[in-house]
Amino acid sequence: FCLYVQPQYNQITEKLVGGEVLVRWKKQDGTIVTPGEFVPVMERSGLISRLDEFIWNQTAKYLSNRIKNKQNIVPLAVNISRRDFYNPRFCEIFYNLTEKYGILPEHLDLEVTESAYIENADLIIGIINELRSRGFKIKMDDFGSGYSSLNTLKTVPVDTIKLDMQFITLDDGDETSNFRGGVILDSVLRMAHWLGLPVIAEGVETRKQAEFLKSIDCAIIQGFYFSKPLPLDEFSALLDNSVPEYNDSK
Ligand code: C2E
Ligand code: CA
Ligand code: CA
After folding, report:
1. Would you list the DSSP string of 156-190?
2. What residue ranges line ligand 1, CB within 6 angstroms?
């Protein structure tokens, strides 16, 4: 298993602001398998928790090495499976990682998919409150994909919303539906601003989407339009050659 990172950009300043860590399975013959093919199986068997812990560890180690070498970093977000919340050591794993590798909680963001909150809200809210009190930032992943998005937002403490453009299409050729998609996106952005929550738009594939997002003040984007997920060495090269917006001293 290895790490890929998909860069996130601020399209106003055109700077790199962060990245999302995505697992890949590299088979012996060199073929790369994407998580859609093995994560659901591992979630069912419970093996996902071990894989996730491995990925979080590798991410913390990667950041730590770059810090030691005085190289640029940006905060990296790791994915949390709903299964992970049932691990009694869950919070401890993150506290230990920051301590062991000498990184800050703000270097390691946690992405929790929206639908996970509904499953066992009290348990998850409790864990998230604890992690947030220690300085970790929580991103609500796949916002808009579930059945009760708005209600979840009312009760769940999060720092950032990730809005997937795949859920609210702007390019399906039907004018009425495109218009409605635009109105919905605009309204979600305004609502998020009123709630004081930053938004990252992901799955941004086209210039049209990027420009529309810019027009409704959605600056941070992630998607094939800017970059596909990159193997770690390519992501490192990108970091080396950019001036990230993230300022470690803040
Ligand atoms: P996700 O967390 O929603 O991650 C975003 C997915 O969208 C990634 O798929 C990414 O490659 C893909 N993507 C990025 N830009 C675009 C775009 O412009 N258009 C489209 N159509 N797709 C785009 P990927 O890497 O195949 O991962 C799929 C899912 O597997 C992730 O969805 C996440 O739920 C899960 N996953 C990935 N890595 C991990 C991990 O380390 N642990 C756990 N538990 N789950 C993971
Ligand atoms: Ca994610
Ligand atoms: Ca997502």
Report:
1. ---SEEEEETTTS-S-SS-HHHHHHHHHHHHHHHH
2. 6, 22-23, 34-36, 39, 48, 52, 55, 79, 81, 141-142, 166, 203-205, 223-224, 229
d(CA 119, CA 132): 20
State the closest ligand 1 atom to the C-alpha of 224, by its place in the atom list counted from 1.
18
Among 5-14, 53-62, 150-159, 194-203, the least confident range: 150-159
User: Can you give the pTM of this predicted structure?
Assistant: 0.96
Q: How far away, in angstroms, is 22 Cα from ligand 1 center?
A: 6
CA 40 to chain centre: 18
Do residues 233 and 3 make contact, with C-beta atoms less than 8 angstroms apart? Answer: no
* 213 vs 219: CA distance, rounded Å: 7
